[in-house]
Amino acid sequence: LNSHKKLPNSFKRIKHINGGILSVNLGHAMSSKIQSHTLGNHSINIVIGVIGMLIIIMGTLITSLPTQKLCYLFGGLFLLLSSLLERQLFFTLFQIVISSGALIAFAPIPAFYKTLLPISLSILVIVYFIKQGKFKDPLNRLGCLGLVFLAIGYAVTHPLIYFLGALCLTIFSFTAFKQGIRLGLVWGILNAVFSITAGIATYKIFFL
Prior knowledge:
Layout (H helix, E strand, L loop, with lengths): L1 H35 L5 H19 L4 H22 L2 H16 L6 H21 L6 H19 L2 H20 L4 H25 L1
Helix pairs in contact: 2-3, 2-8, 3-4, 4-5, 4-6, 5-6, 6-7, 7-8
């Protein structure tokens, strides 16, 4: 009878051990699942994104316009490559729109056509999200809103528009990072820097 009373405790210990093994196995499975969704090495993909982020941030500190454009272009290409390797649809599409604006900036065409391309692409991205049913998510709508603001910023070149776009994308990116997308941290830091610089420029216009 005494040994029978001890059985429940034994079962509890066995259940605890099995639960621990199950947790380890599930964690390993989730890790493998994340790795299977990426191309190449996950850590290297993030490093590529960090390099792109640093190049673009360096561009914001350069006063020479041609050099700044080059930093935005090459930094954007690194970010685009990182997004593609990580198979992150949202960041890939967003970066295609932004990089198109950086690339066409070198073309000897009127400013109207330079702004028309990123604005048109941003509209196409929104239409795609709507058709795929992804626009119902408030976070995705916030990200698209930020993209539209940045695209319009190419047209009006006002720091307030850039500030609003960067702020929306900062919130979007950090939320994505919180949900487990590491690349979101890279985008979050980059857009936070843009938010600060554009915010300072906006403050100078309206209050100084």
